[in-house]
Amino acid sequence: MVEPGFSVNGIASVFFCNGLDLGLAFVLAWIMAELLKNFSTWFWNPDVWTPPGYDWNDFVPNDKIEYADWNDLWSYPFYMAAIATALRFLILNPLLYGPIARRCGFKDIKVRPVVPNKLLEKTFWKHKGRVPSDVICESAKVLEWTERKVERWLRQRRSMKRISKHTKFIECSWQLTYYTFIFFYGVYVLWDKSWVWDIMNCWYNFPKHSLDLDVWWYYQLSLAFYWSMTFTHFFEIRRSDFWQMLLHHLITILLIVFSWTCNLTRVGTLVLIVHDVADIPLQFTKLCMYSAPKHITDAVFGGFALIWIISRIGVFPLWIIRSCLIDAPGVIPMYPVYYIFNGLLIALECLHVFWTYLIIKIVAESMRKEDGKLDDVRESSADPSELPDEDEDEKKE
């Protein structure tokens, strides 16, 4: 055994190796920085993002026009998103929403994880949590288990993916709080704005529109919320519309970023306010589904469906998208970002149509049920996270 110690050759070799590693890391970092710089230059080409005859230097805030500062998008919203996430999970959930949920009778039951099993895990996801009896029998033979033991494993695995009413109640409470606040704040901000009462003012004298401080806050708060929802989306139990909701968040973020960058904030505020108004009764309807009597739930759901259809299927496409597609070309010069912006608006409307179909489907299914009970707007019988609760005897097992 060689005695531990130091030597000149050893120290030199360590520094030499580390020097190579540090040099390689520096070269790679420089290459990545150059690639990112070139990509940014290519992506934010003024011929694409600014009207004909303008470039990015024309959008610098000055004494006459307070243009939107692009750098604000990559600082303040992330700070606000971090604050909102901390406020949600560290303060409101444990100190406000959790106690209210328990007062409503919803227990926060922690489910014990199952012992990992590749065969049963694959079987569980293949059959979306609803495993046929013959498959259970076959799995028991392969594992040399009893069928009862396999059923118990699957039942426990299903419990791990189920979203409890306690969790649902807390999630809806947070979103109801935000949407109520941001909607009334949006009404306060936009009440005296000319483009609310005449949408043509979104296009007149474009792009020389000054950004008011209250609109700045409205944008920053909205973007911060959607960033926080996007980040936490990956850490929550996946629902049946996981990818649709993620797509919705990303499209909304892109619309906010692009409309801010290209000084289309006037029409951007209209998109925000029209969407926020329907989200309040949506979250309130979910809370009623979990805790309120049937007649109250039905009344609230009816109000929500009416507001949703009017705002998302009526006002949004017939007022905002129509003006973007028909009014704008007659006032502002056409350039590539116009088509990008309108493409995102149309994609958002396609999601609205999809969710409207789900709402109509829920109404139709509730009318066929004997009890007429409504299900969660985002529930699906094929989603393990939304399977009905087990019998009490099974829970005890």
TrEMBL record:
Biased composition (Acidic residues): 386-397
Location of the TLC domain: 167-368
Signal peptide: none
Keywords: Membrane, Transmembrane, Transmembrane helix
Subcellular localization: Membrane
Positions with biased composition (Basic and acidic residues): 371-381
Major localization listed first in the record, in broad terms: membrane
Domain of life: Eukaryota
Matches recorded under Gene3D superfamilies: Homeodomain-like
Single GO MF descriptor: sphingosine N-acyltransferase activity
GO BP: ceramide biosynthetic process
Region (Disordered): 371-397
InterPro entries: Lag1/Lac1-like (IPR016439), TLC-dom (IPR006634)
Pathway listed: Sphingolipid metabolism; Lipid metabolism; sphingolipid metabolism
Transmembrane segments: 12-33, 76-97, 169-191, 216-235, 299-320, 340-360
Bilayer topology: Multi-pass membrane protein
Gene Ontology CC entries for this record: membrane
Name recorded for this polypeptide: TLC domain-containing protein
Highest classification ranks of the organism: Eukaryota, Metazoa, Ecdysozoa, Arthropoda, Crustacea
